From TrEMBL, chain A:
It comes from Teichococcus vastitatis. This is NADH-quinone oxidoreductase. Binds 1 [2Fe-2S] cluster per subunit. Keywords: 2Fe-2S, 4Fe-4S, Iron, Iron-sulfur, Metal-binding, NAD, Quinone, Translocase. Residues 2-78 form the 2Fe-2S ferredoxin-type domain. It is an enzyme of class 7 (translocase). Its EC number is 7.1.1.-. Residues 78-117 form the 4Fe-4S His(Cys)3-ligated-type domain. The keyword Translocase applies.
Automatic annotation (TrEMBL), chain B:
Keywords: 2Fe-2S, Iron, Iron-sulfur, Metal-binding. It holds the Pfam family 2Fe-2S_thioredx. It comes from Teichococcus vastitatis. Belongs to the complex I 24 kDa subunit family. The keyword Metal-binding applies. This is NAD(P)H-dependent oxidoreductase subunit E. The keyword NAD does not apply. Its cofactor is [2Fe-2S] cluster.
Length: 686, 209
């Protein structure tokens, strides 16, 4: 530890800390542009100058290590003067076009110029002009505004793991860009917008849409992947205008995946905003009363095993729990939320969770990824893996398709389950790495469980973790990586077949008189027999609604107070940012009303009552914002059935940008899909 | 601006001569630090382009090859190549006329050298390439040969002690395909005084013994 005095305040900071960190520890604000705590230190903007006793010149605090006994002044005349001058230089080539800049009102340059800059500029000469660059469909560039802090370059290289941005040229001709005009190949590109301290990189979909002070901000969680990214939903009037990540060190740090960030325009399109009823083969608009009367007419008197329900991937835990209660009330055990047919064993929670936790990645020292491409399935979580890998403390191996670019080196062990056996019997070299590891991790992708031998693969992955000491009372190294934010919540809410109940495949086989689809769009609706009465409850007119006989319009994740559980089992609350469109309603209320229409007594009239019942059913719902961490108390594995096949693993989310109901309705995502799936990445500019 | 006959090639492969040079260069660096060879390799590319096409420049596809060879991200090679103006990232003429315009050369008449380049080489000014594709003219900073100012560097060779006429003669010779002997246009031996040494004559070395 080093003792340093900051403006007369004495504090202790670890050796090796920078002066800037010491100043922060003493609660002194240091202006900065290039410094970012999650990136390497560049030290090129000079905004962070402070005075250090006995140093002849001001020093750049972000790049200057503390020394014992150091005296630092952050507000001396020298410092104030230095900041003023740095600011004046930075503004020389800056266009000062704040009135037409989307960063206006939340711009570091604007704020710091006001707080630390001088009175006005003295520069009368011509400013340099820089051509705008093409970085893809999501990030808009106005490069005149760039102050060349290189945060974006470092983010792309270090965090996103796609070294495609750089600073070319020199001196006055230095330019930030890709040099070859192409869309950045990352699922994390939106973070460049957040990280750019000025308005050089802004959001293309948000261009000229709103000013930050006009927005209503609602804290919520992202459900378009299973990471559980904490978000802020910005709305103006009746629409979402943007979604930003919120910092949560244990989950997403401050990053966010592109699909979660940019798919929100899908919330405005193809919405179900009123009930529909099929009459004479045609869907017609109707009223809630009519919809419920049709439901009660068709479903009254059906035997329990003649009805069933399937929940989709984006459902909130409340509605899954409520629908389960309705089904059980009707005497049906036919409930399932595994549209993909994944062989998930719900007999114990740690059989289907990402048990190490996202922060567990920071401790792991060996990792095997089975049948998953975390870069696509959970981009932010993948960045965490990359961070750990880049620290040099974790070795990674991968079983699945060859030539996968995970943004870090992963030894390819094989394409199919045979490689798991190869690790078990030690014939693969990586077994040695696993054996030597103190905290080995196994990640099995949800898609690896969604195949005929899924149960065997689940058991084999568990056994692998067990064999290499990943299941101890201190450490749980078995991890299932889910794909969407509603999947774990529905499992926790018990939305799986009850005693003797049918699973998704069983329900689609026929024999059901009535089928309730709760946001279930990723089943093959063509398999549903034509005489089955189908109720679709959800927010988008996607595949499920097309087959429905009655459509009940529900709320999307931005439109309700609801609980979601992330792949690591973290229970989080999404909050209502705006009301559902038209006559659409919160989903649990719809189910409550359906219960009344079907004479099923559901024991909840309010959200609080519903949540109480949920906690009684599964106490985990009481641990909001937390997760039950810890080791593996019982290392006996999930039930295996059958043997593993030899078929190679295939990856889910063939099209990352169109993977869910909301994204499929989004124009931004359609454009991304077009551009990124182009086999010859276009070099063309706009 | 760029000579029309030199387009961005669709591919680039090192030839035998370059491969031999690369082998020597890479021996200087440990395997995990081979990215250090980026500048020498860019020179290899530029020389090979000069040999093969008569325009010594570094096309983007060649930078990609360098990146591949050194295990670097291509953008890191672009950054280096565009930072140093010794690398031509656009096609240039057969002869690269690099006029030193820094103070000593300027005081000794670099403006005249530049004028001669424009006149004899049919060039509009710095940055221009002549229509016949023979010459590209750039202004460079001090070449470190100030004692023999003004200096014109043609490709790798220094021509020194120039004035308008000697520069014109030099350019005319280049047009004929000759490469006059580099060095002082007034016959000085290195940077010794014109007409031979004048001081330190009593030192045996100065008498050439
Ligand atoms: S574009 Fe933004 S983040 Fe990148 S160097 Fe310029 S100012 Fe910094
Ligand atoms: S923040 Fe220290 S130099 Fe930029
Ligand atoms: S000034 Fe021209 S060589 Fe030094």
């Amino acid at each position: 530890m080093a003792k340093v005095t900051i403006d007369g305040i004495e504090i202790e900071v670890p050796n090796g800390a920078t002066v800037l960190q010491a100043c922060e520890a003493a609660a002194k604000e240091i202006p900065r542009f290039c410094y970012h705590e999650r990136l390497s230190v560049a030290g090129n903007c000079r905004m962070c100058l402070v005075e250090v006793e006995k140093a002849p010149k001001p020093v750049a605090s972000c790049a200057y290590p503390v020394a014992d006994g150091m005296k630092v002044f952050t507000d001396s005349p020298m410092v104030r003067n230095a900041r003023r001058n740095v600011m004046e230089f930075l503004l020389i080539n800056h266009p000062l076009d704040c009135p037409i800049c989307d960063q206006g009102g939340e711009c570091d340059l604007q704020d710091q110029a006001t707080a630390y800059g001088g009175q006005g500029g003295r520069y009368m000469e011509e400013k340099r002009a820089v051509k705008d660059k093409y970085l893809g469909p999501l990030v808009k560039t106005i490069m005149n505004r760039c102050i060349q802090c290189t945060r974006c370059v470092r983010f792309a290289t270090e965090v996103a793991g796609v070294p495609e941005l750089g600073a070319t040229g020199r001196g006055e001709d230095l330019q930030i860009g890709t040099y070859v005009e192409k869309a950045l190949t990352t699922e994390l590109s939106g973070n460049l917008i957040d990280i750019c301290p000025v308005g050089a990189l802004t959001s293309r979909p948000y261009a000229y849409v709103a000013r930050p002070w006009e927005l209503r901000k609602t804290d919520s969680v992202d459900v378009l992947d299973a990471t559980g990214t904490n978000i802020r939903v910005d709305t103006r009037g009746p629409e979402v205008v943007r979604i930003l990540p919120r910092t949560n060190e244990d989950v997403n740090e401050e990053w966010m995946a592109d699909r979660g960030r940019f798919a929100f325009d899908g919330l405005k399109r193809r919405r179900l905003d009123r009930p529909w009823v099929r009459r004479d083969g045609k869907l017609r608009q109707s009223s809630w009363e009519e919809a419920f009367s049709v439901i009660s007419e068709k479903m009254h008197g059906l035997k329990g095993d003649q009805v069933g329900a399937i929940a989709g991937d984006l459902v909130d835990a409340e509605s899954a729990f409520a629908l389960r209660a309705l089904m059980r009330g009707l005497g049906s055990a036919n409930t399932d939320c595994r549209q993909d047919g994944a062989a998930i064993d719900t007999s114990r929670r740690d059989f289907y969770l990402f048990n190490s936790g996202i922060t567990g990645i920071d401790e792991a020292d060996a990792l095997v990824i089975i049948g998953s491409n975390p870069r696509r399935e959970a981009p932010v979580l993948n960045a965490r893996i990359r961070k750990r890998w880049a620290s040099g403390s974790m070795k990674v191996a991968q079983i699945g398709p060859q030539g996968l670019d995970l943004t870090y080196n992963a030894e390819h062990l094989g394409e199919g389950p045979l490689a798991i056996a190869g690790l078990m019997d030690g014939s693969l070299g990586f077994a040695e790495t696993l054996k030597a590891a103190k905290k080995p991790m196994v990640i099995v992708g949800r898609a690896a469980l969604a195949r005929p031998d899924g149960a065997a693969i689940l058991a084999a992955a568990w056994d692998l973790a067990k064999a290499f000491g990943a299941l101890t009372p201190e450490w749980h190294g078995f991890n299932v990586l889910h794909l969407f934010g509603g999947q774990v919540g529905a499992l926790d809410a018990g939305f799986v077949p009850g005693e003797g109940g049918r699973d998704v495949a069983g329900m689609l086989q026929g024999g059901l008189q009535a089928l309730w689809l709760l946001g279930a769009d990723d089943i093959d609706t063509a398999l549903i027999p034509s005489d089955t009465f189908v109720v679709y409850q959800g927010h988008h007119g996607d595949r499920g609604a097309a087959r429905a006989d009655v459509i009940l319009p529900g709320a999307a994740y931005t439109e309700k107070d609801a609980t979601y559980v992330s792949t690591e089992g973290r229970v989080q609350r999404g909050r209502l940012a705006l009301f559902p469109p038209g006559e659409a309603k919160e989903d649990w209320r719809i189910i409550r009303a359906a219960g009344a229409a079907l004479d099923v007594a559901l024991e909840f009239d309010t959200l609080d009552a519903l949540r109480e019942r949920m906690v009684a059913f599964n106490p985990i719902f009481g641990v909001v914002d937390g997760r039950v961490a810890g080791g593996c108390a019982d290392s006996s594995g999930p039930r295996a059935s059958g043997a593993m096949g030899e078929a190679a693993f295939t990856l889910p989310l063939a099209d990352y940008w169109l993977a869910d109901t909301v994204s499929r309705a989004s124009e931004t995502m359609a454009q991304c899909s077009r551009i990124y799936n182009d086999p010859a990445p276009r070099l063309a500019a706009e | 601006m760029s000579a029309p006959q030199h387009q961005e090639p669709v591919s680039f492969a090192f030839d035998e001569q370059s491969e031999a040079q690369i082998a020597t260069i890479l021996k200087r660096y440990p395997e995990n630090k081979k990215a250090s060879g980026v500048i020498p390799l860019l020179y290899v590319v530029q020389k090979q382009m000069g040999r093969q096409t008569g325009s010594a420049w570094v096309p983007r596809v060649a930078m990609d090859q360098v990146a591949l060879r050194l295990g670097m991200a291509p953008i890191r090679v672009y950054e280096v190549a565009t930072f140093y103006f010794m690398f031509n990232t656009k096609p240039i003429g057969r002869y690269h006329l690099q006029v030193c315009g820094t103070t000593p050369c300027w005081l000794r008449g670099s403006d005249e050298v530049a004028r001669a380049c424009r006149d004899a080489g049919h060039l509009k000014g710095y940055g221009d390439t002549s229509d016949d594709g023979l010459f590209t003219m750039t202004e460079v900073e001090c070449l470190g040969g100030c004692v023999n100012a003004p200096i014109l560097q043609v490709d790798d060779d220094y021509y020194e002690d120039l004035d308008y006429d000697s520069t014109v003669q030099l350019i005319e010779a280049l047009k004929r395909g000759d490469r006059p002997k580099p060095g002082s246009a007034r016959g000085r031996l290195c940077s010794a005084p014109e007409g031979g040494p004048e001081t330190l004559l009593d030192i045996p070395l100065a008498e050439g013994k």
